[in-house]
Specification:
heterodimer; A: alpha/beta; Rossmann fold; B: 314 residues; eight-stranded mixed β-sheet; 13% strand
């Protein structure tokens, strides 16, 4: 296909449609509004449904409802709306509802600076809900990557029956780049698993060897129970420890045993590097430039660009940092993902480069940390 | 003695919303706010929901507000003012501060009032806080670039109800929020427009002195979203009133009263025709939407006349 000029928010919407998304419920918020606007135009054209809700709580709840009804469903928001969605994201994790939540991060806390970029929601994506559950969160660094990772988000959601968070940022969302989109026929689309068992045998939370029991949409003759309470294999509320614990173990196991599929990243010259830069999202662009500049000066510098932030790619980071005396983690926050890097490689080797004032980290800032 | 509601007297009062704000040329919001603030002689405290008014009156590093002013979030101006009002009354009661007869106002757009802020507003009204909530209603989310809201009329083009080959603009009627608020049985509820400025200001005076929660829904044109010239703002607002699309009335202690009756009720088309957001409705295939809108305006108008005791059957 020939290249087209496209905004990150548009690429997200197009990626969703390419992945088979037929339902979007959302609420206007800068800098994610363009995703809703694009979906409002495009979804009716492909037979899908766009609904504007009365707030973000309603948006994520409608998305969960649509997913239970059988649709691939998505919502998009920014920090303040992401905060409002947290209760229902926890619900989706508890009830194992496949859905995609896009958070185009802007400077916070609170209203912050709506048109300035941030990576301030990284920990909120992981720990914003109450209670323990795994989560998948992906962070794109370009318009094309936004398209690809939106597709990946839907595929992970369906394959692992889990909410997936796409952590964009204001620059990636609003930036326009020339992109060459993949041939639609070449895009891998994971569809919801089906069951071979008759309705009377179906258990929506069965402890199957795959760890991912199929979710049969409501309305197909399978009567079952979905709740935010702890539940047994049939979905009925339980207080039995021998039902709660196996469930908890299973929902972590279904992510943990599939890390090779879920962990997306790009390595550039990490082998034998004396300095490693670990970056994601818009900052990965400055990092790439900084690494090139350092190499011109004869430094052995590697770049690890993370696309999957959660689950945190512990082994990937550990391996990439093996030969590095210094690991630099630039982030548009006051130190969030770096806490994970420090946990894995030790604090002594790590240098932080942070900004949380709405301005971007420059390549020279990262270069300075290499000195 | 309250200032007389005549231009000569009102012009002598210092503006409580200063010039130099960044609201668009042609925006009705600052007209509405200035009329409201000018109607009140007592000290005023304002809570402002997220929206154009909040953003464009407080552009870095200035504020246009000459009264104490707080912006919290999109959904909770009514809750914030409820907290302020309760604390003030508590301080007065305990003799910590003198009672200066402070009036508590909350401003929200239609998004922050009809949609995301509705729960906070309803709760504050039920609890009986003594405050006035003003909805400056421009019938869509204009601050984020014109998305439909619960106040957007049937058929209007917005970026999330785009008129095209599949759908002809917004597919639902707007909700009748003023009537919903009236159903809270609070002392004072009104609907107003900046073209009838004296009517609006009198309503504000009743609202701030009603001894309980009050609500005023003010139609406030946005020329960017409604798609008209900047100088047409008030003319088009008046057409909304004269077509009975936006009737002016009040509900005082449960008694409904019409405060303005057009000499001649114009067809709603007269109002629609002047706005770009309805342009597609004038294509033959969409004509039925104008008829539906007219029928709905008539139905609501007839009901209002009945509620106001102007007719004997709805």
């Amino acid at each position: 296909m020939s290249p087209v000029l496209m905004q990150g928010d548009e690429a997200c919407a197009e990626g969703a449609i390419a992945a088979g998304c037929t339902f979007f419920a959302g609420y206007p918020i800068t800098p994610a509004t363009e995703i809703a606007e694009h979906m409002a135009r495009r979804l009716p054209q492909v037979g899908g449904v766009f609904i504007q809700m009365e707030d973000e709580i309603a948006s994520i709840a409608a998305v969960i409802g649509a997913a239970v009804g059988g649709a691939k469903a998505m919502t998009a928001t920014s920090g303040p709306g992401f905060s409002l969605m947290q209760e229902n994201i926890g619900y989706a994790a508890m009830a194992e509802i496949p859905c995609v939540i896009v958070d185009v991060q802007r400077l916070g806390p609170s209203t912050g600076r709506p048109t300035s970029p941030s990576q301030g929601d990284v920990m909120q994506a992981r720990w914003g809900t109450h209670g323990d559950h795994p989560i998948i969160a992906l962070a794109p660094a370009s318009v094309r990557e936004t398209f690809d990772l939106t597709v990946a988000a839907f595929n992970f959601a369906e394959r692992y029956r889990t909410p997936v968070i796409l952590l964009m940022d204001e620059v990636i969302g609003h930036m326009r780049e020339g992109v060459e989109l993949p041939d639609p026929a070449a895009i891998e689309r994971i569809e919801r698993a089906e069951t071979l068992v008759p309705p009377e045998w179906y258990k929506p939370y069965e402890n199957l060897p795959s760890d991912v029991p199929p979710l049969i949409p409501f309305g197909q003759g399978y009567r079952y129970h979905i709740t935010g309470l702890h539940h047994d294999e049939r979905g009925y509320p339980t207080e039995r420890l021998d039902e709660i614990n196996p469930w908890l173990e299973r929902i972590f196991r279904k992510i943990q045993r599939n890390l090779s599929d879920i962990l997306l990243y790009e390595e550039d010259g990490v082998e034998g590097a004396r300095t490693l830069v670990v970056a994601y999202g818009v900052v990965a662009r400055a990092a790439r430039h900084a690494v090139r500049m350092a190499r011109q000066r004869g430094r052995k510098v590697g770049l690890l660009k993370l696309q999957t932030l959660w689950p945190f790619p512990e082994e990937v980071v550990e391996q990439a940092a093996r030969s590095a005396r210094r690991v630099i983690v630039p982030e548009l926050n006051l130190g969030q993902l770096v806490l994970e890097v420090e946990r894995v490689v030790g604090r002594e080797r790590v240098r932080r480069v942070n900004r949380a004032d709405g301005e971007l980290i420059k390549p020279s800032d990262i270069l300075a940390a290499m000195a | 003695m309250a200032t007389k509601l005549i231009p000569k007297e009102l012009a002598k009062k210092p503006d409580r919303l200063s010039p130099g704000h960044r609201l668009c040329a042609g925006c009705a919001a600052p007209i509405v706010v200035r009329q409201i603030l000018a109607a009140i002689d007592d000290p005023v405290v304002v809570a402002n929901a997220t929206g154009c008014l909040e953003v464009a009156t407080t552009v870095y590093p200035y504020t246009a507000w000459r009264v104490p002013w707080v912006h919290s979030a999109f959904e909770n101006a009514a809750s914030t003012i409820a907290g302020i009002e309760s604390a003030y009354r508590s301080m007065v009661r305990r003799g910590k501060i003198p009672d200066r007869n402070v009036k508590f106002l909350a401003f929200g757009g239609d998004g922050g009032t009809y949609d995301i802020g509705f729960q906070a507003l309803s709760g504050a009204l039920e609890r009986g806080h003594q405050f006035v909530y003003i909805c400056y209603n421009n019938e869509a989310y204009m601050n984020t670039g014109i998305q439909r809201s619960g106040a957007t009329p049937l058929g209007a083009h917005t970026t999330t109800s785009p008129a095209g080959s599949v759908i002809p603009g917004k597919q639902q009627m707007r909700k009748d929020l003023t009537a919903i608020i009236a159903a809270h049985d609070i002392p004072y509820v009104a609907q107003a427009a900046p073209t009838q400025w004296k009517d609006l200001m009198e309503k504000v005076r009743k609202a701030v002195n009603c001894g309980g929660p009050a609500f005023i829904n003010v139609l406030s044109s946005c020329n960017r979203g409604w798609r008209h010239e900047t100088y047409e703002t008030l003319e088009i607002t008046q057409l909304a009133v004269d077509t009975c699309y936006w009737p002016l009335y009040e509900v005082e202690n449960g008694v409904w009263r019409l405060t303005y009756k057009p000499k001649e009720k114009l067809p709603v088309e007269e109002w629609l025709r002047r706005q770009g957001r309805f342009r597609h409705l004038f294509r033959p295939e969409n004509r039925h939407l104008i008829d539906e809108l007219q029928a709905e305006v008539d139905r609501r108008w007839e009901r209002l006349l009945f509620l106001c005791g102007e007719t004997f059957s709805a």
